[in-house]
Amino acid sequence: MPDKSTSSEEVTTPATETPEISGTPRKIYPIVKFGDPILEKPTISIKKFDAELEELAEDMFASMYAAQGVGLAAPQIDKSIRMTVIDVTAGKNPEAKIVLVNPEIIHAEGEVREEEGCLSIPGFRGYVMRPQFVTVKAQNAKGEFFEIRGENLLARAFCHEIDHLNGILFLQHLSMLKRDLIKRKIKKLKKLGEW
Ligand code: NI
User: How many domains does the chain have?
Assistant: First the structure.
């Protein structure tokens, strides 16, 4: 998901403006762009939970914040594994950080049509219908199972990021006309060496 300012949906913003300060220097991964086949390939389930996975999750948050996103899935940093990180406060509230490992949507309700974009498809946006409420079952980076419910922007982020883990981009939810238009523009950008 791209920067939160692009969504008109309400997000509770906490009083604190201080992003989490961690003593560990973080690796900032470059974001894979549309056209790379890894983005359209289903990822594999994670079975090994160790310190390395926890480090990777933190590096993914750092990479997502650097790109001013509110969600980042592992294929977007060239790793075809079933993990995504989400923070709809974009770093303002450390408690809003969500790591989803091997997530699955177990309940969805309602419909909201809202504009969304993707860090892997910068500069392009489109209206996508998503459920208003979504409940996800997942594991955290330690392997512990939990369930989490999201509404509006968070529900949208769950759907968008879990789509990524299944090799699906938001373009696939657009009309064929709109999708082809975006793909043609990206092709032109590629020719110009600007993608
Ligand atoms: Ni995305």
Answer: 1
